Amino acid sequence: MKQVFSPLKIILSLLLFLFIGIPFIALLLSSVATGWQWPVLFPESYSFRAWEYVLFGSSRTWQSIGTSLLIAVIVTVINVLLAVPAANALVRFQFKGKWFAEAILFAPIIIPPFVAVMGIHLTFLRLGLTETILGVVLAHLSPTLPYMVRAVMISYNTLSVDWENQARMLGAGPFLRFYYVVLPHLLPGIAAGASLSILISLSQYLITFIIGSGQVVTLPILLFPFISGGDPAVASAYSLLFAGMAILALLAMDAVLKKYYQTKNPSVLKVKGVKR
Amino acid sequence: MWQKSKPYLLLLPATGAIVLLFFGGLFDGMLKSLGYFPAIGERQLHLTAYTELLSSDSFWESLSLTLRVAAISSLLAGILGGMLAIALFMMNQSTKAKESRLWQRLFQLPLTIPHLVAGYVIVLLFMQSGLFSKLLATVGIIDQITDFPVLVNDPFGWGIILAYTWKEVPFVLLMVYPVLARIRDSWRDVSRVYGAGNLSFIREIALPIMMPSWIIAVFIVFVFTFSAFEIPFLLGVTYPSMLPVYSFQLYTSGTLADRPEALAVNIILALMTIVLGLIAYYFSKRWNVTKGWQ
């Protein structure tokens, strides 16, 4: 059996190298190369000039990372607050016009959000929301919220009302019930939604550019002039930093979640298993 | 009374936000595309922007480029992603669960890469003095920089196609693989009893099972490519440009007169994605895509 599939493994390894390996090697080499002339496959000399510039030379890098993360975190917190009650209603209640509510909430997945942002731009301008973090946060809500609702809905689907009823019988009020029964169960869904929400918010360029008008400098805004014809070494270093930031945000979310289950609430996993 | 209105109250904040920020923006844009600018005293609604747009060559060129790029890149991503899913599925039958999860995660890495970075990766690899050109020159296949085809900032859109294919292969994999993973080991054994080799197993069992979700995945990639901005902005040419870029060019061109046209492009784009989205939704419900079969 093993023998039959080992050629497949070799092909897959080659594909992995071609798809994932080469792009990263290219970015890495380009970020440390000096004078990488055309016919030579590997750079002749290396220096950390671009990295020094990106990490220490310009304070704008750290400011832009801070702005990006600040916006992503505010957007995600608002998303959680909006999505949990909405998902609750969509999963646990039967009511008239449910399909309509779903259509409204999930529309920004299909219709490109920049259409709405360009449309609302002049109104934002009049309200003084352009060039502000608040304006950019508001603009980032519609591309991210549908994914959060979706993720929390999946968690609600596996949460039986019985658990809450049991807590009610033991005398827990609505807040205690939510905190000790509902929230722990929703957490994986919230974390998955938060990862998506952070990732989408971090990588927005056009929406931030329109509403921020170049004054709200997130990492993609700072990066763009470099990658469209600037210094290739600096552009590569910024690209790696940008990609790394997105991947790190995901890994951090993963780690937080794991830690939560290990320390705080070991019983939750068992509870989940019963219902599924 | 409370029980009846409770779901509506729970939904109010989220739907309110979307209605206000998203549909409000769409409506605002639509009014302005019809020439309604109270700030400069324009209150008449008219279709000038639309008629001018539909009679201009640049709009139609832009539309055909958009359709071409979206069709080619979604097909390529679909074919590669589908093959990858089958290959991983076949391999995972003989490997441990932990190892197969690692493989999947590695192949899904491009999903987390921001679009701008994906675009820049394509620049580094495929421009005329890029890494692949250097590689070909080193092994002696090409002699001059100009022997390497123009694949970045080219009028056909190859650079955009390459970038989207790279970015969306993992998406197709993500959509299709879970369906394949539901094939039981016993089915494989039964097929072997009836004399089916690997190829006929793939053809007779794996392919039909993954088909519905594969089609929907390709369709979603198509709609997405249709309406995304960053990659064509970076890898395209000024003329013709893909529809979202075309709209952005009109919007930022400086003259106020072009703005209704830009917003008209947006409304047309939105209508097209709505129609395409409804088609995808209809078939995904009908074919029961997430499950694959009943």
UniProtKB/TrEMBL annotation, chain A:
Coiled coil: none annotated. It holds the Pfam family BPD_transp_1. Its main location: membrane. It is a multi-pass membrane protein. Keywords: Cell inner membrane, Cell membrane, Membrane, Transmembrane, Transmembrane helix, Transport. The keyword Membrane applies. Residues 65-253 form the ABC transmembrane type-1 domain. GO terms for cellular component: plasma membrane. The keyword ATP-binding does not apply. It comes from the Bacteria. The chain crosses the membrane at residues 69-91, 103-124, 178-199, 206-227, 233-257. One of its GO terms (biological process) is transmembrane transport. PANTHER family: INNER MEMBRANE ABC TRANSPORTER PERMEASE PROTEIN YDCV (PTHR43357). Belongs to the binding-protein-dependent transport system permease family. This is ABC transporter permease. It comes from Planococcus halotolerans. The lineage of its organism: Bacteria, Bacillati, Bacillota, Bacilli, Bacillales.
From TrEMBL, chain B:
It is found in: Cell membrane; Membrane. Signal peptide: none annotated. The chain crosses the membrane at residues 7-27, 65-89, 109-127, 156-180, 263-283. InterPro entries: MetI-like, MetI-like_sf, Sugar_ABC_transporter. It comes from the Bacteria. It is a multi-pass membrane protein. One of its GO terms (cellular component) is plasma membrane. CDD domains: TM_PBP2. Gene3D superfamilies: MetI-like (1.10.3720.10). Pfam families: BPD_transp_1. Keywords: Membrane, Transmembrane, Transmembrane helix, Transport. Residues 63-280 form the ABC transmembrane type-1 domain. One of its GO terms (biological process) is transmembrane transport. SUPFAM superfamilies: MetI-like. Belongs to the binding-protein-dependent transport system permease family. This is ABC transporter permease. It comes from Planococcus halotolerans. The lineage of its organism: Bacteria, Bacillati, Bacillota, Bacilli, Bacillales.
